[in-house]
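Team,

Forwarding the record for the chain on the shared tracking sheet. I've put the sequence and predicted structure together so nobody has to dig through attachments.
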Amino acid sequence: MVNYIEASSAPPKNTGAIRLYDGQAFEGMRRACQLTARCLDALADIVRPGLLTDEIDRFVFDFGMDHGAYPATLNYRGYTKSTCTSINHVVCHGIPNDKPLREGDIVNIDVTFVLDGWHGDSSRMYPVGTIKRAAERLLEVTYESLMRGISAVRPGARTGAIGEAIQAYAEAERCSVVRDFCGHGVGRLFHDSPNILHYGRANEGPELREGMIFTIEPMINLGRPHVKVLADGWTAVTRDRSLSAQYEHTVGVTADGCEIFTLSPGGLDRPGLPPLAR
């Protein structure tokens, strides 16, 4: 049985209950998420061949510090970096290091800032120089998968409607959906209930209610969906070494749909790709 609780009276830990946030909380999330979005916008100007992923990490740390925010991943469960940088066949949780980006790479940069206690969580794909058409198509399919999942969010629907929308589109485009990782509740906590699967059926999962806040972050592969985690305990890669991509937004359920908190203020939700008219 799914339990819902007013966030203001919930304990400061994930109990499995789904928090329902009020308008004041939504405003706090807007501020945190827009700071994250502005950082991701700024990264579009620096991602280039030869850039070290450690330099990306330092940029994110400094950006957060300059704006009174702290990177949520830094020292989270032993993770020692301020961001995740996942290149080519790395599905997620790639650890920044002294490896330079190369012409033709695609890289996901995942940023979460904690601002006044609120977590703003988002990620985008960045093409490095000129990329192959197959990689460009993967980015297009993955972003569209995210937006189709978001379009399914409304009170009364179930979380499975999000997964069904993503899975139906991605698989119709001859791509696969990673099942080992999912979206999650977010707000005062970095990771909270419910889990948001990126596959499934519309009549499955908890009911969406006004006030819920969570991430949607599909990971889409050009090859098979299977992944493995490397010996560092964090880096997840495709087993068949096919390219993988991910875009992520944080959304809040409203009375008639949802609000995307992490939209790019500069129209750079798909950096390096042509903007979409919607």
